[in-house]
């Protein structure tokens, strides 16, 4: 039985992450997806864990607290500290480490695994989490459906005059660069 591992921040999960994890899932018998989490992350670790578990229900999805350890994409952390942190959360040593970032090769070496590079050039899925955090609507097609609600603002307009409500809705849509808005339905008894 072959074991694989994907490590990422998934901040937020996007189509590139989905491609990476699906590729890894097809390559090995057993896949562990490790989410590196810090308290200061702009999206909570518990939210990202829930999204990844929804996206990959047949894989093991776990969290790794990185409060005292740098993520490999940053300045390289102490190899011994990173290895010890991963060994605490992994139930089995991976045979393969899958990554779309250059740090994957070093991570695989630390764990005694083989490195499998997946779309480092972003040729298959041209997106990054940084791009999505900067402008989610420009990359909407790369955001999984279960993640999209985190980027949507909903506005309810209550007015006795539907004309005023419609005018305000159009002005808000124009201000936010949206092409349309749902038609309102007057509700009696509010």
What composes the largest sheet?
Answer: 5 strands, parallel
CATH class of the largest domain: Alpha Beta
What is the CA-based Rg, rounded? Answer: 21 Å
Strand content: 5-15%
Strand tally, please? Answer: 5
Structural class label: alpha/beta
CATH superfamily of the largest domain: HUPs
Large-scale geometry = elongated
Helix proportion of residues, in percent? 25-40%
- Average pLDDT, to the nearest integer? 88
Contiguous helical run count: 6
End-to-end separation: 61 Å
As for the number of domains, it is: 2
**Largest beta sheet: what is the strand line-up?**
3-2-1-4-5
User: What fold name stands as the CATH topology of the largest domain?
Assistant: Rossmann fold
Order of helices and strands: EHEHEHEHEHH
Quick rundown:
Helix content is 34%, strand content 15%.
Topology, element by element:
Layout: E1 3-8, H1 15-27, E2 30-37, H2 45-55, E3 60-65, H3 79-89, E4 96-99, H4 103-111, E5 114-117, H5 129-134, H6 162-175
Parallel strand pairs: 1-2, 1-4, 2-3, 4-5
Q: What attributes does this structure have?
A:
190 residues; alpha/beta; Rossmann fold; five-stranded parallel β-sheet; 34% helix; elongated; disordered C terminus; NAD_biosynth-regulator; catalytic activity
Question: Please, could you describe this protein's structure?
Answer:
This protein has 190 residues and is an alpha/beta fold. It has two domains: 3-142, HUPs (Rossmann fold, 3-Layer(aba) Sandwich); 153-190, no CATH class. It has helices at 15-27, 45-55, 79-89, 103-111, 129-134, 162-175; strands spanning 3-8, 30-37, 60-65, 96-99, 114-117. The chain has a five-stranded parallel sheet, with helices on both faces.
């Amino acid at each position: 039985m072959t074991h694989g591992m994907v490590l990422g921040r998934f901040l937020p999960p996007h189509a590139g992450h989905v491609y990476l994890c699906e590729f890894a899932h097809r390559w090995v018998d057993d896949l562990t997806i490790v989410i590196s989490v810090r308290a200061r992350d702009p999206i909570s670790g518990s939210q990202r864990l829930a999204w990844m578990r929804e996206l990959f229900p047949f894989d093991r999805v776990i969290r790794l607290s990185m409060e005292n350890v740098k993520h490999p994409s940053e300045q390289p952390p102490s190899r011994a500290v990173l290895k010890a942190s991963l060994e605490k959360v992994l139930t089995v040593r991976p045979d393969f480490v899958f990554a779309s970032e250059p740090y994957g090769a070093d991570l695989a070496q630390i764990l005694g695994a083989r490195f499998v590079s997946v779309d480092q050039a972003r040729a298959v899925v041209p997106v990054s989490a940084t791009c999505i955090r900067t402008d989610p609507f420009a990359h909407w097609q790369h955001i999984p459906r279960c993640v999209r609600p985190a980027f949507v603002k909903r506005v309810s307009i209550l007015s006795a005059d539907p004309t005023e409500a419609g005018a305000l809705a159009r002005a808000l849509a124009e201000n936010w660069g949206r092409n349309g808005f749902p038609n309102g339905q007057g509700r009696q008894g509010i």
